[in-house]
Amino acid sequence: MEVVVNGSPKTVRPGVTLLELLAELALDPRTVVVEHNRRIVRRPALGETPVAAGDAIELVHFVGGG
Amino acid sequence: MTTAIATLQDTPFTVGGRAFQSRLMVGTGKYPDNETMTRAIAASGAEIVTVAVRRVNLDRSRDDSILHHLDPKRFFLLANTAGCYTAEDAIRYARLAREAGFNEFVKLEVIGDQETLLPDVQGLLEAARVLVKEGFQVLAYSNEDLITALRLEDAGCAAVMPLASPIGSGLGLLNPVTVRTIKRRLKVPVVVDAGVGTASDACLTMEQGVDGILMNTAIAAAQDPVAMARAMRLAVEAGRLAFLAGRMPKREVAVPSSPLEGLLD
Q1: Sequential DSSP letters for chain B
Q2: ipTM for this model
């Protein structure tokens, strides 16, 4: 199934959780903040939150800025 | 002299219930490379450093997390909402930043115009009210307007940050009188943010009596950012000390420094 991660379409297997998605992308859940369909998902809930087709997921972190 | 000792021992810079020794806050953007940034920030003596919230780069062509280069135990990370043009966006970015788990402080920017990057006062106030209610310590990037500053204070902001001149312009402190008025009228700290270009700008700004300065481009875009960071540190300290010392009155006529008595016939 297809979801949108950081604005780009991505094919994931049905039923994948946000935590599994992060692992697949080789991202450390401690260094990334996850927004799922405009709702922030806290770290402890990542493993219990499945992704559905068409979901919008934003993965953000801190970069240099003023 | 006891007064001199009292003057030399400045009070800490306190904002949102936290105390800091340095009155210089620095950004982490636009450096030629991360090593220069790390060395420049060390040379600046800053404790508070600003960071931006952005998407993780998923193609891994570059690893751009700032936390690989800044120890969050050593520096107080102040997330900004740079790039936000509506209250809604700024609130979204602030919530994401807080979720990173470092602190509840946010440098709130709601920009109203792409060319000047001047703040959208209405959006700023709207976002500030929401975020204060959610428990954020809001440091609001504002234009140098007294009424806006008073409204932001009323909204519960932890600090108001009037600009010296537009972001990244390096034009220096364009409106010292208004900035001084804002400082005199507000109870919360006033930190001048944006527009400082070189050390004399920073010194002149601190001489107005404001609580601190936040800058990024003036250091990052200098030919030698590490040297400029050191210059800014000294300028902020010099300006602060000159303010505390109290300058002599200006006169439009000369007053001799040497005695008039004892001159030869």
Answers
A1: -HHHHHHHSPPPEEETTEEES--EEE---S-SSHHHHHHHHHHHT-SEEEEEEEE--TT-SS---GGGTS-TTTSEEEEE-TT--SHHHHHHHHHHHHHTSS-SEEEE--B--TTT--B-HHHHHHHHHHHHHTT-EEEEEE-S-HHHHHHHHHTT-SEEEE-SSSTT-----S-HHHHHHHHHH-SS-BEEES---SHHHHHHHHHTT-SEEEESHHHHTSSSHHHHHHHHHHHHHHHHHHHHH-PPPP-SS---SS-STT---
A2: 0.95
